[in-house]
Structures are given as C-alpha cells and as structure tokens.
Design a protein that fits this description.
With 170 residues, this protein is α/β, with parallel strands linked by helices. It is 38% helix and 14% strand. It has a single domain, classed as TPP-binding domain (Rossmann fold, 3-Layer(aba) Sandwich), CATH 3.40.50.1220. The protein is globular, with a radius of gyration of 15 Å.
Length: 170
Amino acid sequence: MVDTTKNTLVYTTWGPKSAKPVNPITISKLVSKAKRPLLVAGSELMKDEVMLEKAVAIASKGIPVAATGHSIKGFLDKGVEAKYNNIHSLAHFLGDKNWTGLDGKGGYDLILFFGHKKYYLNQVLSGFKNFTDLKTIAIERHFMQNASFSFGNLKPDLHVEALDELIENL
C-alpha cells in the first residue's frame, strides 16, 4: 500500500480545520460510499499525458467529470463525456443545496479534485471547508490543507503509484 499520509507540510496558515491525510484505499472507500461523487479536473492535467490518462481512468469508473480550464479538450479527445465549467462558478453551484448538478439529477456529496494549481485550488477548497458540508478530496501531488481529505506531498513517481492504487480499488 502506498503511504500518502506522511509529508503534510503547508506553506500558509492552518486555521481551525485542516485536511486529513489519507491513503488511496481510504479514498476509494469514501468514493464508493458516496451517492453522487464528482471529479473536478483542472488544466494542469494537460501538461502531463500520464496524469490525463489517470483522470480518464477515474472517469471510466463511472464518476462524472467537470472539466475546468482547458482540460475539457483532453477528455473529449479521449472520448470521455465531460461537462465544462469554470472552477469559480462551479464552486458557487456546488455550494448551492438547490443546484441540480451538471446532469440535472441532483447535487453532489463528494468532490474529487485533480489537476489544479495548488495556490488556486486551496482557495476554492477554503470556501467549501468554511461554507458547505461537502466532502472534498484532493488527489493532487501536493497536500491541500483546505480539503476534507488529501494526499500528502508526494514525489512524482509515488503520486503515479498512489493514483494507480486508487484506480484499481475504485
């Protein structure tokens, strides 16, 4: 099992709540228990074909995809049905209990984040942490203190190994 819970050094203040560092198997269990999970994919995925392939593999497990930035092109090119949305407007929608979701079937209860710039995503996650009851999980290479759950800071090869373990157990 890949230990993704060790290095959780942060470079900003912690605040009263911080993400719980978790391993890939725990994340897969959280996702499987969720009624309506959502993968929010960022444009950083377009910089690395391996990371894009991991996101596509997660989507192939039946998890709907909200593609932010220009990541929509990567998913559409791979034949994955994804919906485009700006991350800021998506954050507003996700926080609205009356929103019917990207497919009109209801809101989401667990949000996976993957492929975002750390400084940008951490601010979006801060809004969820402080103003919603949503479970947020960052499967990024860096620890995201404002998520509900996050991988620790990982070296690139360990991050790929952790993602493979997560995908295998979804």
